[in-house]
Design goal:
The structure holds two protein chains of two kinds. Chain A has six helices and four strands; from the N terminus they run ααβαβαββαα. By secondary structure, chain A is α+β, with helices and mostly antiparallel strands. A four-stranded mixed beta sheet of chain A has the order 2-1-3-4, sandwiched between helices. In chain A, a hairpin with a 2-residue loop joins strand 3 and strand 4. In chain A, helix 1 runs antiparallel to helix 2 and helix 2 packs across helix 4. Chain A starts with a helix and ends in a 5-residue tail after the last helix. Chain B has eleven helices and no strands. Chain B is elongated, with a radius of gyration of 35 Å. The chains are: A alpha+beta, B mainly alpha. Chains A and B meet through helix 3 and helix 5 of A and helix 9 and helix 10 of B.
Chain lengths: 137, 367
C-alpha cells in the first residue's frame, strides 16, 4: 500500500512538470503496478549483460528481485520507452545502450546500474533495501 | 690482392666490359679469380660500403673478370680446353656464392629494419610512461606507429602527461607529509590528487569510445600493471587492500565504514565480473553461430559488432566503480589519512612501473 502512494505521487508530479500529455497513461500505470509488486523490481532485457550483472549484484546480497524481461513481455516496447523517459529526466545520460537495466526499490525508481552501484558504495543501498523489507539485518 | 688486378683500369661499376685495356693480360688474370663472377649479369647496386659478408677484394676483381673471360674463349679454347672448363666452373661457383651472400646480407638488413621499428615503438611507449629516455631518437620518424586512431593517439599522449603530473604530485605529497603543514593546505593537495584520478577516468571514457579493445588491453600501461588488469584498470578491492595498512589510528565508526566499503566494493566487482563473463559467452556464441567451415561469416561478424558495444559500458561502469570507491574512502578518512593513503597508492603504482622497467631490461645485464 505504501509503495503505491509513493510511486503515484512521484510519477504524477513528474507528469505535471514535464507535460507528458502524450504519454499513454495506462503504460505509466502498468509500470507503477509492476514496480509496486515487489520490494526490488528490475526491468531488464534477457540478452543484456549489464542486466545480468545487476541481477547478480542483488542475488549476491541475498535479495531476490522480481525481474521483468521486456524483450519477452507483450508490452515490453512501451514499458521500455516509458522507462527511458523517466530515466532521461533524472539521470541525464544512461550508460548502457538501451537504458536498461532499471531498478525500483520499494516502488521508487533508483535508476540504472551506475546509480545502483554508486548507492551501494556510498552505503545508501542497504538501508533502502532494509526499509523496503528486502533485507533483514 | 693479386698482381693481375693492377694491370686493369679500375672502374667504379662492377661488371663493365672494358676490352681494350685488357688486351694482352688475359693469360695472367685467371690465376686467382676465385670468389667472384657472374657480375656481368648482375646490376650495379651490389656495391655495398659496409660489408660484413662481402670481401672487398672480390669487388675489385669483378671489374677485371668479365673481359678476360671473353678473350679466353676466343684465344685459347683450342690450347687448354680443360683449364678453360675448370675456370668457367669456378666462375659459376663464385657467382653463385656471391649471389647467396648478397641475399643473406639483404635479409639481415630487413631484419634489422624491423627490429629498429620495434625498438622505436617501445621507446615511445616507455617515454610516455615517464621513464627518462634519450631525446636523440625521433620515434615517429619511420611513421610506423600502430596508433592510427586519432582518439587513441591523443589518449596515449594525454596519459604520458598524466603520469608526469602524477609523479610530481606524489613528490609533493611526500614532502608535505614529512613536514608540518596545516590541514587546509593538505586538503587542497588531497583534492588535487582526487581530481587527477577522476581526470584519468574521464580520459579513459573518451578512449573507450574511440577503441574499447585498446583500453581493455591495457597496452597503454606497463607490463606489471597489466598483470593486475581488471576491465581496463585496477581492481577497486585491490586498491583498498593496498591502502588500509597505512591508517594506524581509526575510530570505531571508521572501522565499520571501511568494513562496509570493502564488502560493497567486492560485491559490485563480482557483479561486473559476472556480467563480463556473460558478455564473453554471448560473443563467442554469436561468432560461432551458423556452422564453422563454410567460409561465409559476414552476418556473424556484424552481429558480434553490435554486441561489442556492451563492452564500452562495462569499461565505463568499472571506472565508475573505481571513482566511487576513491570518493567513499575520501569521505571516511580524515584529511591527513587521505593524504597518506593517496601517497601510498601513488607509490604503489610507481613501484609497479619500476618493476616493469627492471623486468624489461633484465637480459641486458652482463652475466
Amino acid at each position: 500500500m505504501q509503495y503505491r502512494t509513493e510511486t503515484r505521487s512521484s510519477l504524477s508530479s513528474y507528469n505535471k512538470v514535464n507535460n507528458m500529455g502524450m504519454f499513454p497513461s495506462d503504460t505509466l500505470a502498468r509500470v507503477e503496478s509492476m514496480a509496486a509488486e515487489n520490494a526490488v523490481v528490475i526491468f531488464s532485457v534477457s540478452t543484456c549483460c549489464m542486466c545480468h550483472a545487476v541481477k547478480g549484484l542483488f542475488r549476491g546480497m541475498g535479495v531476490s528481485p522480481a525481474v521483468h524481461e521486456l524483450d519477452l513481455h507483450p508490452y515490453g516496447a512501451d514499458i521500455h520507452r516509458a522507462l527511458l523517459r523517466l530515466l532521461g529526466c533524472s539521470n541525464g545520460a544512461s550508460t548502457s545502450p538501451g537504458g536498461l537495466p532499471v531498478v525500483f526499490i520499494g516502488g521508487k525508481m533508483v535508476g540504472s546500474m551506475e546509480r545502483v552501484m554508486a548507492s551501494h558504495i556510498n552505503g545508501s543501498l542497504v538501508p533502502l533495501l532494509k526499509d523496503a523489507g528486502a533485507l533483514w539485518l | 690482392m693479386n698482381s693481375a688486378s693492377t694491370h686493369f683500369v679500375p672502374t667504379s661499376r662492377v661488371g663493365i666490359y672494358e676490352p681494350l685495356h685488357q688486351f694482352g693480360m688475359w693469360g695472367e688474370t685467371f690465376k686467382n679469380n676465385i670468389g667472384n663472377g657472374g657480375s656481368m649479369n648482375t646490376p650495379n647496386h651490389i656495391l655495398i660500403p659496409n660489408n660484413q659478408k662481402l670481401d672487398n677484394t672480390n669487388l675489385s676483381e669483378d671489374t677485371s673478370h668479365g673481359t678476360p673471360h671473353m678473350f679466353d674463349q676466343e684465344a685459347s679454347t683450342s690450347r687448354h680446353p680443360d683449364k678453360i672448363q675448370r675456370r668457367l666452373a669456378q666462375n659459376r661457383e663464385a657467382a653463385r656464392k656471391s649471389r647467396l651472400r648478397k641475399k643473406a646480407y639483404v635479409q639481415q638488413l630487413e631484419t634489422s629494419r624491423l627490429k629498429l621499428i620495434q625498438l622505436e615503438q617501445e621507446l615511445d611507449r616507455a617515454r610516455q610512461q615517464g621513464f627518462y629516455v634519450g631525446n636523440g631518437i625521433d620515434t615517429s620518424s619511420l611513421g610506423f606507429s600502430e596508433t592510427m586512431n586519432p582518439g587513441i593517439a591523443a589518449f596515449e599522449m594525454e596519459y604520458g602527461h598524466w603520469i608526469e603530473e602524477q609523479n610530481k604530485q606524489i613528490c609533493e605529497l611526500r614532502t608535505v607529509l614529512h613536514g608540518h603543514v596545516t590541514d587546509v593546505e593538505l586538503r587542497s593537495q588531497v583534492e588535487n590528487a582526487m581530481k587527477h584520478y577522476f581526470e584519468l577516468f574521464r580520459m579513459k571514457s573518451a578512449a573507450a569510445k574511440a577503441d574499447v579493445f585498446f583500453v581493455m588491453s591495457g597496452m597503454w600501461r606497463t607490463s606489471a600493471e597489466r598483470f593486475f588488469l581488471w576491465i581496463g584498470g585496477f581492481r577497486p578491492s585491490d586498491l583498498l587492500k593496498v591502502l588500509l595498512p597505512h591508517f594506524d589510528v581509526m575510530t570505531d565508526q571508521q572501522v565499520l565504514d571501511v568494513c562496509n566499503l570493502r564488502q560493497s566494493c567486492q560485491q559490485a566487482e563480482d557483479a561486473l565480473s559476472q556480467g563480463m563473463e556473460k558478455l564473453q559467452h554471448t560473443l563467442a556464441e554469436c561468432v560461432a553461430r551458423g556452422g564453422l567451415g563454410e567460409g561465409n561469416y559476414i552476418p556473424q561478424v556484424n552481429s558480434a559488432m553490435e554486441r561489442l558495444e556492451a563492452l564500452v559500458s562495462f569499461v565505463n561502469q568499472a571506472d565508475h566503480l573505481r571513482h566511487e570507491t576513491l570518493q567513499q574512502m575520501h569521505r571516511i578518512l580524515t584529511t591527513r589519512q587521505a593524504a597518506r593513503g593517496l601517497l601510498a597508492l601513488g607509490e604503489y603504482f610507481q613501484r609497479l612501473r619500476a618493476l616493469s622497467s627492471s623486468w624489461a631490461t633484465r637480459h641486458r645485464e652482463p652475466t
